[in-house]
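Duplicate of #3305? Posting structure anyway:
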């Protein structure tokens, strides 16, 4: 095992990202990346410092023929307990992740847009022009809405099935074979401009989605319902597109972090997630039920969408506290 592989191996065993190791060694993240991809080698002082940080000897780091070492207390997981990930498997995972990003983000978009047919048919009284009675329009609107929800659920289920064979990557310690780490980091850096653009556009669209309502109030006041309904439909469309962009780029970005075992997918975070994750699924089921119940009872689909961003913020806060408490109890 060469020095580059040993640095990757020991860094991951300690649950550190490249940024965290760079900070400890007082170097740039690019330097760590070059060491791990064998594009350059650290100087002797950095090797000595790494040996101290990792709890290994300098001989182990510098001599390629030394491939085993005694377990040290700082290592959370032994190499034998980690699953190996080949280059072929990593590429297959990233391909599935990108396809699932398209499906899941489209499913979320359909869920947000599903009330639009009912709003446009009834709110603007278009059913009269289509030769339908009001009850017929309600039926058609509900059929379209549930058809969109059904398509969204189908997208979620098929995405889950396609990605299930890679589920261990997000929950178990992994070891990547030589070259995989560098390939993943290169692809992540290459996609970074697109990630920033999509994330920015998505956030901006969500913020600007209230503009149609304000414009309608300025132009028509509260005198006409039809313009307000159309404005509400435009609002939902802007939110749907914004969330679609955010979800899509976040899932793709998350795939890179899974293979690099960084951020929420570090080994320490994986151990914490096993304790907290059973409650996350129940949380979103409750949120979905609350959204549908409130929306049907009030028929204010133009307002009830706010439940989703509020739930997302609350999710981060609640589960952040839960993870912190779990981490404290685990010490």
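Output from current build:
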């Amino acid at each position: 095992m060469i020095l580059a592989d040993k640095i990757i191996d020991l860094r991951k065993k300690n649950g550190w990202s490249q940024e965290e190791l760079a900070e400890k060694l007082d170097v740039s993240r690019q330097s760590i990346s070059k060491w791990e991809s064998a594009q350059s080698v650290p100087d002797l002082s950095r090797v000595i410092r790494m040996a101290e940080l990792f709890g290994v000897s300098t001989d182990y780091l510098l001599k390629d023929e030394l491939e085993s070492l005694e377990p040290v207390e700082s290592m959370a997981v032994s190499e034998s307990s980690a699953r190996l990930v080949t280059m072929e498997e990593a590429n297959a995972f990233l391909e599935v992740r990108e396809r699932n990003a398209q499906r899941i983000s489209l499913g979320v978009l359909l869920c947000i847009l599903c009330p639009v047919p009912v709003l446009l048919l009834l709110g603007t009284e278009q059913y009269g022009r289509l030769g339908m009675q009001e009850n017929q329009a309600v039926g058609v609107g509900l059929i379209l809405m549930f058809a969109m929800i059904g398509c969204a659920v189908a997208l979620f289920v098929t995405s889950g099935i396609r990605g299930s064979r890679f589920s261990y990557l997000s929950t178990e310690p992994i070891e990547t074979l030589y070259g995989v780490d560098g390939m993943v980091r290169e692809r992540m850096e290459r996609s970074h401009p697109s990630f920033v653009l999509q994330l920015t556009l998505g956030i901006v669209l969500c913020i600007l989605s209230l503009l149609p309502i304000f414009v309608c109030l300025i132009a028509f006041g509260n005198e006409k319902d039809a313009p307000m309904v159309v404005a509400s439909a435009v609002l939902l469309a802007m939110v749907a597109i914004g969330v679609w962009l955010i979800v899509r780029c976040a899932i793709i970005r998350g795939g890179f972090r899974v293979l690099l075992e960084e951020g929420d997918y570090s080994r320490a975070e994986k151990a914490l997630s096993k304790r907290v994750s059973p409650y996350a699924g129940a949380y979103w089921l409750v949120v979905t039920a609350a959204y549908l119940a409130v929306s049907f009872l009030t028929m204010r689909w133009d307002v009830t969408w706010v439940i989703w961003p509020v739930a997302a913020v609350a999710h981060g806060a609640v589960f952040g506290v839960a993870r912190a408490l779990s981490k404290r109890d685990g010490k």
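Confirmed duplicate; merging threads. The CA atoms of residues 101 and 248 lie 5 Å apart. The longest strand covers residues 83-85.
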